[in-house]
Amino acid sequence: MSDRPLSTLSSLAPPVLSALAGAGYETVQDLLSNSTPEQLSKDLNIPLPASQAVFSAAAGPSQRSLPMTQSAAAMMGTTAKQYSTACPPLDRLLGGGLKRGFILEINGPPGSGKEQMAATAVRTFVECDQQVLFVDMQNMVLPATIKRILMNSPTADPDGMDLVRYLAFHTTAEFVAFVRSLPAYLEANPSTALLVLNSLAFPFQPHTIKRFAMLDKLKQVLARACASMGLTVIITSQLTTKMLEGNGQPGSAPPGSKSVMIPSFRDSDFPPGRTYRVIIVPLTRTTGVIRLLSSPTHVPSRGQPAREEPYQRIRGMIS
Amino acid sequence: MRLQQFSPPLREDLVLALQDIGVRTEVDLILNEDPTAIFTRLPSALGISLLEFRRAVEKVTELASAVPTYGDKQQELENARHDEILRDDMLVGLPEVDALLGGFSPPRLVEISGDKGSGKTTLAMQVALRHLVTVSDSSVLWIDSSGEFAPERVSNMLDQMRGEYSASALERLQVSLAFDIEAVHEVLETLRESMASRNASSYSEFPTTRCIVLDSITPLLAPMLSATSSQGHAIMTTFVRQLRAFADSFSLAIIVINQSTKMLPRNPDAVFETARKPALGPSFTFMTDATLWLSRRPENADDGGSTMHVAEVTRSRISRSKTWAPFKIMNGLLTSA
């Protein structure tokens, strides 16, 4: 029998709560030990179903163990299964593969093949019979491409395409609508194991207002989904161009100015404890390195060289 | 409290007659109207005289009033409790930082606040882990309200700590996900029931919870605080009072992590120049026992991958405030500066 105040049972309607307070019921113990639903309904002059709702809310959680709780040791154990990204240098940077509940962000210049990498990673999840939600924001990967990639594998299952849901949009407003409806979608489809956000920087053109608010909402939604249902997320982002030593007059580049391409998002835009950020750095037409920008356990600081893995392009990305 | 619930109980027929005319609680009886006015409304068939009614009202007043305590007895109790619990099992491990509040020994409700990246989660985690590796039969409940708990970081910190019981420490760190205030209430309720049943029986196979960390209370309560309605503030106050009562009755150390908001042009309470202050409004700091404000110092930042931080006590009812201590975070662990 507990001393929990009745006002904390927020699932009850305000009129019922004020009737309870007016009649002098303060804690759950007062209620449960002194009354029954029928007596309460007569006492407070409320209908019987409302009174029964009060009692079932007051009866509270009946399980012995805490809800939604596991020990830290168990959390490390369940995320042991690693999904290969079908790209060996990337797998090596991730320490074997991508685990459930983690976010992988791939940055890279145009034509570096990051969207292709994301699409190929879908194959691993489909082969393990997991549902995938593929969201494309710049028309880089069409459903036909995904189908071709899935059918290419030797263990192709014709029903594999049913596991992949495809969504395409391009504007900021649609992005906001997507982020708001994502929790409801995930609740309706709890077996979704992978979410791919392709070309995430596209809806956020530099002049987009409320950029921080939108990204913050995305980060919150992703953190909750990853923690509660072990959703894995692969994000590809384009790079943005930044002018150095220039006066930023649009359309004119003063002599002696340099422009660099940097990742569009910062480390703080993603949940820190579960994000891997990599960038593809092409050095020649067919070779280059993939560099690890940050990982859950280690943020490379200035002065310390970041981990890199060389790759070769052979009609895709294979080392 | 309802009139039926007083013990020794009042006259049954009197209570029923009062209920019929709408007087149900002691507040209705004593404070809302003059008792003589209530007497005139009672049915004469009851057969009670004004004198008896007045005596009944006096008895209710006596039963409903607060129990007095004497200052010197309170002081004795406090000293006894303080001596009994002056163990060193709930500390950060850095003498300067521990001296700020005298450690985190139960029963205590401490708020740790600061900007992003100032080391709040790391500090709370270090207290929890240090406790788990030095005491074998206790567990820590970590309530995660944003899904940002990372077991890899925890095991990284644990590897660098030395303690007798570090092998089982990860199993005794229970992590709950709670994305709104209702879910946190449920977690606390279940914990309360299990601890109450443990108190009843002397043997228990599960380790006792000695510490609760609520990582980020801000996303739970901030959306409800508004300038036009005080309901959010009432929910916040009830919740923190419950936490306090919880800490007292089960002898727990509760650490609440709070985020920060803007305060222009500058925060007058902080020792170092800053334009940030703890979130959740000016009254939140008075509901907890002490508020620690952590900030990151930019000087010699890249000294081998470590960062400098400062912890200051902005308000405390258990120690001196406006004191501060620097510390360093290297490899995810707090070390002395």
TrEMBL record, chain A:
Residues 84-242 form the Rad51-like C-terminal domain. It is found in: Nucleus. GO terms for molecular function: ATP binding; crossover junction DNA endonuclease activity; four-way junction DNA binding. GO terms for biological process: meiotic DNA recombinase assembly; reciprocal meiotic recombination. GO terms for cellular component: Rad51B-Rad51C-Rad51D-XRCC2 complex; Rad51C-XRCC3 complex; replication fork. It comes from the Eukaryota. Gene3D superfamilies: P-loop containing nucleotide triphosphate hydrolases. InterPro entries: HR_Repair_Mediator, P-loop_NTPase, Rad51_C. Keywords: ATP-binding, DNA damage, DNA repair, Hydrolase, Nucleotide-binding, Nucleus. PANTHER family: DNA REPAIR PROTEIN RAD51 HOMOLOG 3 (PTHR46239:SF1), DNA REPAIR PROTEIN RAD51 HOMOLOG 3 RAD51C (PTHR46239). This is p-loop containing nucleoside triphosphate hydrolase protein. It comes from Trametes coccinea (strain BRFM310) (Pycnoporus coccineus).
TrEMBL record, chain B:
Residues 86-260 form the RecA family profile domain. GO terms for biological process: DNA strand invasion; double-strand break repair via homologous recombination; reciprocal meiotic recombination; telomere maintenance. One of its GO terms (molecular function) is hydrolase activity. Gene3D superfamilies: P-loop containing nucleotide triphosphate hydrolases (3.40.50.300). It is found in: Nucleus. Keywords: Hydrolase, Nucleus. Pfam families: Rad51. SUPFAM superfamilies: P-loop containing nucleoside triphosphate hydrolases (SSF52540). The keyword Hydrolase applies. Its main location: nucleus. One of its GO terms (cellular component) is Rad51B-Rad51C-Rad51D-XRCC2 complex. This is p-loop containing nucleoside triphosphate hydrolase protein. It comes from Trametes coccinea (strain BRFM310) (Pycnoporus coccineus).
